[in-house]
Design goal:
heterodimer; A: 9 helices; 3 strands; 5% strand; B: two-stranded antiparallel ribbon; 9 strands; elongated
């Protein structure tokens, strides 16, 4: 199925033997794509530096402490990435209210019956592999969206615990807003444990997320991978327009 | 009514010079500085000496042991000797009914004016039978004593957060003081707390007659406001990424950071690296051993002491969050790989199906 000569909103038959019509749909707006990639870079940096902070390696060696600052730099990168990631996430929440219908906050929760049915459908496609093609939402599919919602909860958890740990080194108001979590989790030791544990959630999420993006690119055949760069996806004209 | 501190000291044979030395030391540890000595002296000359009740519940007396090793012996001497330490199981000469009478009289004669220092946690399980003195449970005694107290100080981790007897599974229901009384409690955690910190808190209460500034956990900010890590002399090694990798290695000999050996300095609020112990001689990290976080709540359960991350519950002593995480991560990768293999095996069938369907539609 070639899509080379298709114009927006203008249904044109594809070449070759398969005369199925596709139309271009602008799904991911620029702020959404920026959010995705800033988040991706920040999260990778946070995971790598976070792991190193928990389990420092013998990366560099100096005779005296004043000669290097590599562990301090690792922590600095972690903190900077954390601030970037938090404000980026805040911007995405805002965009969940003003963005297009694919970016709306309501898509992340299975409020409607068709969303819940689609979750079953996607499980059939992704996990059971009994339904290898068919109509799946053009934006986030309902299962993916709900899992993103769960990751948002983990985002919040990591933000709260992270700032709580950071607050002991900071006098600024933002981290200090979260000091209350420390006694609740049995001191900073407990906070650090949970904050570190959820690092592995992100590692697993990234593996599954990247794989499924490729998988859906193949199964759906409508540019899942390229859409997060260019913003466009393709819809079957006779398909189910959800 | 009673004698002033100066009068009592005079009676005990202290010279005026001793008294003034005491005032200088007291002013210093209370944070008033040397110039505050005159103020202290005038208070101690006029003010009636306060009654002090030192309770011992579920504890090991390490707080008392620490207290008598303060850097300024004259202050401790004076405090123990001169202050009306009306009741303390460990040090008082009286026993039995005499001791009970002393306690009751102190409460009756100094309503709302006496200071209560509590060492030890209070067991609450099974009606409190695990700690009873003179036929009364620790909790009953605590409530009686606390009711008319001017100030309550919780000495050490037992009284502040439960310490070892509150460690899982906490068989006696050991409970810190602040959870049992309806009054503000000054928590001075540590196992034991630093002698000079204890002395400062007591002096503060006596000299200024007010509670020192406390943080959200009721600890004096002056001593518990910063982490051991923040003021540790090995901190530069931490930032440089120079760590002790195993006990007695070359790095340990050079005095590198003990972070990887499980040092709790980065998560422990205490003044060890500033005030130090035994008249400012040393503190655990300086002696080559990581901090075990003895002033933090639940430190006994946050083991093992020589691991930077705690062991993951249910996975044995050696498995940390990283061990578990690596296994889960590897399992995820394996699952994804298996999925990819299955998808590729079925590829031809799926492509044929899609093409057939599109033929039909077009």
């Amino acid at each position: 199925m070639s899509t080379a000569n298709i114009q927006p909103g203008n249904a044109v038959p594809t070449n070759g033997t398969h005369g199925v019509e596709y139309r271009r749909v602008y799904v991911w707006q620029l702020p959404v794509r920026f959010y995705h990639w800033i988040n991706a870079v920040a999260l990778v940096l946070l995971c790598v530096t976070g792991y190193l902070i928990g389990a420092p390696i013998r990366a560099f060696y100096a005779a005296e402490a004043y000669q290097q600052y590599w562990f301090g730099t690792v922590r600095f990168i972690h903190f900077v990435s954390a601030f970037v990631y938090v404000f980026n996430f805040a911007a995405r929440i805002y965009w969940g209210f003003v963005g297009n219908k694919y970016a709306q906050w309501t898509t992340f929760l299975p409020f409607k019956k068709w969303q819940r049915e689609e979750i079953v459908d996607v499980i059939k496609t992704d996990v059971l592999q009994t339904k290898m093609h068919g109509a799946i939402s053009t934006g986030h599919n309902s299962l993916a969206a709900f899992i993103y919602f769960l990751t948002f909860l983990v985002f919040c958890f990591q933000t709260i615990t992270g700032f709580a740990l950071y607050s002991s080194m900071s006098t600024s108001w933002l981290p200090r807003m979260f000091t209350w979590i420390v006694p609740l989790m049995g001191g900073e030791f407990g906070v650090r444990f949970w904050h570190h544990l959820f690092l592995w959630f992100f590692v697993c999420f990234t593996i599954v997320h990247v794989y499924l993006a490729f998988y859906h690119d193949y199964i759906e055949g409508r540019g899942t991978i390229s859409s997060i760069v260019g913003g466009w996806k393709f819809d079957r004209v006779k398909g189910d327009d959800k | 009514m009673g004698d002033s501190i100066w009068q009592s000291m005079e009676k005990k044979g202290y010279s005026r010079r001793d008294f003034l030395q005491f005032c200088v030391a007291a002013a210093t540890v209370a944070g008033l500085g040397r110039t505050g000595a005159a103020q202290v002296a005038s208070v101690f000359e006029k003010k009636e000496k306060p009654a002090v009740i030192w309770m011992h519940f579920q504890e090991c007396t390490c707080c008392s042991e620490s207290f008598i090793r303060a850097s300024h012996p004259i202050v401790v001497d004076a405090l123990l000797d001169v202050l009306s330490l009306n009741y303390t199981e460990t040090l008082m000469a009286a026993s039995g009914f005499q001791a009970e009478k002393s306690l009751n009289d102190t409460i009756k004669n100094n309503k709302g004016k006496y200071i209560v220092l509590v060492e030890g946690a209070v067991p609450t399980k099974d009606g409190g039978v695990y700690c009873m003195i003179g036929g009364k449970t620790a909790e009953q005694i605590l409530q009686t004593v606390a009711a008319d107290a001017a100030a309550i100080v919780a000495w050490g981790s037992c009284a502040s957060n439960g310490c070892v007897q509150a460690a899982k599974p906490n068989p006696t229901g050991a409970t810190p003081i602040h959870k049992l009384v309806n009054k503000p409690v000054i928590n001075v955690p540590g196992c034991p707390p630093i002698a000079d910190v204890m002395m400062s808190v007591v002096t503060h209460l006596l000299v200024l007659g007010q509670v020192p500034e406390l943080d959200s956990l009721g600890r004096p900010k002056e001593f518990y406001g910063r982490r051991v890590h923040d003021t540790c002399y090995r901190r530069a090694n931490y930032d440089a990424g120079l760590f002790v990798e195993s006990w007695d290695d070359e790095n340990a000999r050079k005095g590198y950071c003990l972070y990887k050996m499980g040092c709790r300095g980065p998560v422990t609020y205490n003044a060890c690296s500033v005030v130090k112990w035994n008249e400012g001689t040393s503190y655990p990290i300086q002696s080559g051993h990581g901090c075990i976080g003895c002033s933090e709540e639940g430190f006994w359960d946050n083991g093992p002491f020589y691991q930077h991350l705690p062991s993951f519950p249910g996975f044995g002593i050696e498995s940390t969050a990283d061990t578990v995480g690596t296994i889960v991560g590897a399992a995820t990768l394996a699952g994804v790989a298996a999925h990819a293999v299955v998808t590729n095996i079925r590829k031809h069938k799926v492509i044929a199906e899609v093409h057939a369907e599109e033929e039909k539609e077009s």
